[in-house]
Automatic annotation (TrEMBL):
Cellular component GO terms, alphabetical: cytoplasm
Domain ACT as annotated: residue spans: 202-279
Protein's organism: Brevibacillus laterosporus LMG 15441
Protein name from the UniProt record: Prephenate dehydratase
Biological pathway: Amino-acid biosynthesis; L-phenylalanine biosynthesis; phenylpyruvate from prephenate: step 1/1
């Protein structure tokens, strides 16, 4: 029996598109789950060998459910990353007579998708009720199952291949430069091709009684000329003002610079936890993989 990969479902999500374009060199059985936490839990409990979840959008920022799941849940190493361009579409059910925009009473989608299309919604659908769903695909599925309702969904073009839906309006996102980073996580290794870009993500806990600790942490990377592409604070959930710091380093693990930086940070009284050192892949277009 082959290994399995869990992804945020149902079928038709951007996460499924990311799965299709990750250059995984092994046949995996894919299984959709209804939420990000369900995907991570499936991998944690060995119901699935690997999982793919969104972690950051270029417009809306970090996907907090994913980040907090990786921080506070069982240790699930990040194995790879894929940046996928996101194009949102207004979807309607196939019916004898298409709805006019002014006839739509409700729009369903994931909260990030709604946020990415605020200007379109304000201009063309200011009267509609917004209802959030676990994913864009679950919104599309819901609208397709109720064709008599004056509803619409925001989601991927892929949904029109899966459900009886059509594109009522294409490319409705507010910004053209809209990308989402998806990460592949798992407890075991997977056969992946060599990439021209690698990244290392760490979690740093600062000592409470050390003034200027964050500055010293950043300095440990600066003088070694290790570039950071992201630094973000996340609550430790232990009290107000208590934070972890998540750092993305634009380099894979080596035998000198990275261990040296970590040792210097730990000498300050900080705790360092490796979340993953992994290849980064870029989307190449429909039908292409890295």
């Amino acid at each position: 029996m082959g290994r399995t990969l869990a992804f945020l479902g149902p079928s038709g999500t951007f996460t499924e598109e990311a799965v299709r374009h990750l250059p995984i060199q092994e046949e995996l059985t894919t299984q959709p789950y209804v939420s990000i936490l369900d995907v991570l839990e499936a991998v944690n409990t060995n119901q699935a060998d690997f999982g793919v979840v969104p972690i950051e959008n270029s417009i809306e920022g970090t996907v907090n459910l994913t980040m907090d799941g990786l921080i506070h849940g069982e240790k699930l190493p990040i194995l790879a990353e894929l940046a996928l361009p996101i194009t949102q579409h207004l979807l309607m059910a196939v019916r004898p007579k298409p709805l006019l925009f002014q006839q739509i009473t409700k729009v369903f989608s994931h909260s990030h998708a709604i946020a990415q299309c605020r200007l379109f919604l304000q201009k063309y659908l200011p009267h509609v009720e917004i209802e959030y769903t676990n994913s864009t695909a679950s919104a599309a599925k819901l609208v397709s199952e109720e064709p008599d309702q004056p509803w619409a969904a925001i989601g991927t073009r892929l949904n029109t291949e899966i459900y009886p839906l059509f594109l009522a309006q294409e490319s409705i996102q507010d910004y053209a430069n809209n990308f989402t980073r998806f990460v592949l996580v798992g407890k075991s290794q997977l056969d992946l091709p060599v990439s021209d870009k690698y990244k290392t993500t760490i979690l740093v806990t600062l000592p409470e009684d050390y003034s200027g600790a964050l500055y010293q942490v950043l300095a440990a990377f600066a003088w070694r000329k290790l570039n950071l592409s992201r630094i973000e604070s996340r609550p430790t959930k232990k009290g107000l003002g208590s934070y972890y710091f998540v750092l993305d380093i634009v380099q894979g693990m080596d035998t000198v610079l990275m261990p040296g930086a970590f040792a210097e940070i730990e000498a300050l009284g900080c705790q360092v936890r490796l979340l993953g050192s992994y290849p980064v892949f870029a989307y190449r277009g429909i039908g292409e993989k890295n």
